[in-house]
Amino acid sequence: MKAVTYPVCYTTHYILSSMARKTSINFEQSLAELEQLVDAMEQGDLPLEEALKQFEKGIALAGNCQKALQNAEQHVKQLVEKNGELLEKSFDLDE
User: Fold this and answer.
1) Which pLDDT score, from 0 to 100, does residue 16 have?
2) Looking at residue 84, what is its pLDDT?
3) Taking the CB of residue 30, how many other CB atoms lie within 10 A of it?
4) What is d(CA 71, CA 91) in angstroms, rounded to the nearest whole number?
5) What is the domain extent for residue 63?
6) How many domains does the chain have?
C-alpha cells in the first residue's frame, strides 16, 4: 500500500484548522509539545519529509502559544482597567 502524501498547503491548513477548532488554548500543553518537537528536530535524525511535517506542526504550535499569550495579556489589561481608563502597569515576573 502506497503512502498518501498531501501538498504542504493542505497539511498546514489541516493543522491550523484543527487547532482553531479547539475552544480553549492550552499554552502549557502547546509549549511542552513545541519543546519536544524542537528537541527531536535538533537531533537531526528525522528524514526530510518528516522534518518538514514537524516544522509545520511547530509553526502552528508557536502560533497557538502566541495567541494564548495575547489572550492572557488582554485579560490582564481588562483586570487593571479602572473607571474606564486603562492603567498600564508593568510588572516583574520575579516578584
Assistant:
1) 46
2) 65
3) 21
4) 17
5) 49-81
6) 1
- Counted residue by residue, the chain has a size of 95
Task: Pick the closest to residue 26 from 85, 72, 84, 68 (CA basis).
Answer: 68
Q: Is residue 30 part of a domain?
A: no
Structural domain contains residue 95: no
Measuring CA to CA, which residue among 32, 8, 19, 13 is closest to residue 63?
Answer: 19
Whether 77 is covered by a domain: the verdict is yes
Helices (H), 1-86: 8-20, 27-43, 48-79
Per-residue pLDDT tens for 69-81?
998 888 888 777 7
Q: Is residue 44 part of a domain?
A: no
How confident is residue 95, by pLDDT bands cut at 50, 70 and 90? Answer: very low
Q: At which residue does the C-alpha cell 483586570 appear?
A: 79
